[in-house]
């Protein structure tokens, strides 16, 4: 029972089983994205829920992050040449990293949790079984629309976050640090390349996929009443957050090497 | 001999170390109403879910219309499931959808029927279970337990399925409504020519709706016969169950010392 090898063996087996289940689940979900019939009505609903209703949270996060970034660079860096350095670092930092990652984490908390709770409740009250008996594939009806909606809307959210983040930096720079607004914006535009923005958007599409996948996977596999649904919700948020950070590292090293 | 609709052969299922179905065999004739009785936790709901492929049995065959359905996948499985209607023991209503959309769900999603037409059919089916059109736009959470049961029933029969499973259709209903539901089940079998498989603890209901009764005990069918034979089954387990006696060969786990 307490044999260390037995414990390690159990953990390894459980992890492998989980990875196997997740791969199968991902395959089922993705294959239903591409196979007809398509449920556009459900997709629209999910885009509203995942994208539109996340706007306030993401906008606030981006605004304050841009602002605080400007302050830190100004106080921490040399005051020499600060006017161009603050603008460029805020722009690069937000579009390349902080926009996608922070928006991803906020959406993981908001949307990942709500997907897991909703599907988890449907699982434990047999609603997912009921779908099957009504000739409706639950992957098609529940998983596919959420995956697609998240992959489409999270990049849009991040694009908006990029703009608002830069505006946050601009507000702090012009109101607190007495920079010239026109010069600040000119510096931002001069230094920012399209690649900086697109790399962030590509990352965020992947983050969207991770968020929806984790929410659906943990919701689908929840067991036993309210407690099980609670556990699924927590797991969905925690695993999505960790995977977002890990995927960010991997993608950054791939994108900026080339 | 009548044609078999469903034939379960030596079906077994265990969860962890717990054996629930233990070589269960049961033949269900086409176009008739079979009722399965048996104590709580003996695997009645698990049996239904095995037939529907919601739970995969560990061993055994399940033949429906002569085809083994345990390994059906993809499009074949969807076509297979379109034959069924199921009333879940817990209702399993979609709580994000109004009542009428619950009832019309199989028609809209499964058969691509226009929403307006499906809605009319839903209202008609709701009327059959004694619910008015005013209930149609409420959400399941706004209904009483018995009303939820009736919505579940309307949903199960909405697409006029060939085979209908009723998992405890009358539990939680008042005696009069229970009898209305009994009549409805009988009518569904007669009018649609459907094959019904019901699970119940309610012997009055079982006697009324059944053509055949089967009793499940410890994961097996221990008695199976026409409803008229239930009182002289010659089986002590059946006798104890139908008379609801605490004393007899069936001992409840909680009575064990
Ligand atoms: N998904 C599952 N995982 C683990 N155990 C299960 C699962 N489903 C059912 N069981 C177990 O199988 C046994 C039989 O359950 P089932 O729901 O079939 O009982 P039942 O005969 O329908 O009882 P009741 O009349 O109370 O509804 C129970 O002991 C239950 O704990
Ligand atoms: Mg049951």
Rounded to an integer, what's the Rg of chain A over CA atoms?
21 Å
Number of strands of chain B: 10
- Uncertain segments of chain B are none
Q: What is the element string of chain A, with H for helices and E for strands?
A: HHHHHHHHH
- The secondary structure category of chain A is mainly alpha
Q: Which architecture of the largest domain in chain B per CATH? A: 3-Layer(aba) Sandwich
Please report the total strand number of chain A as a whole number. Answer: 0
Q: What is the distance, rounded to the nearest whole angstrom, between the alpha carbons of the first and last residues of chain B?
A: 47 Å
How much is the average pLDDT of chain A? 90
Query: What is the subunit organization of this protein?
Result: heterodimer
Q: Into how many domains do the coordinates of chain A divide?
A: 1
Q: What is the share of helical residues of chain B?
A: 25-40%
CATH class of the largest domain in chain B: Alpha Beta
Helix content bin of chain A: over 70%
How would you sum up this structure, described in words?
The complex is a heterodimer of chains A (258) and B (257). Chain A has one domain (4-255). Helix content of chain A is 86%, strand content 0%. Chain A is built from nine helices and no strands. Chain A has helices at residues 4-34, 40-50, 55-76, 82-124, 127-133, 138-175, 181-191, 194-220, 225-255. In chain A, helix 4 packs antiparallel against helix 6 (138-175). Chain A is elongated. The N and C termini of chain A lie far apart (50 Å). Chain B is of the alpha/beta class and 257 residues long. Chain B folds into two domains: 1-83 and 163-257, Rossmann fold; 90-160. In chain B, 34% of the residues lie in helices and 25% in strands. Chain B has eight helices and ten strands. Chain B has helices spanning 44-51, 74-81, 99-110, 115-128, 145-157, 175-192, 203-209, 236-243; strands spanning 4-15, 18-29, 33-37, 59-64, 67-68, 84-87, 163-167, 195-199, 212-217, 220-226. In chain B, strands 6-7-8-3-9-10 form a six-stranded mixed sheet, sandwiched between helices. A four-stranded antiparallel sheet of chain B has the order 2-1-4-5, covered by helices on one side. In chain B, strand 9 (212-217) and strand 10 (220-226) form a beta hairpin. In chain B, helix 3 (99-110) runs parallel beside helix 5 (145-157). Classes of the chains: A mainly alpha (258), B alpha/beta (257). The A-B interface holds A 37, 118, 121-122, 125-127, 129-130, 132-137, 141 and B 49, 52-54, 78, 81-82, 84-86, 88, 90-96, 105-106, 109-112, 155, 159. The complex binds adenosine-5'-triphosphate and magnesium ion. Adenosine-5'-triphosphate (ATP) binds next to helix 1 of chain B.
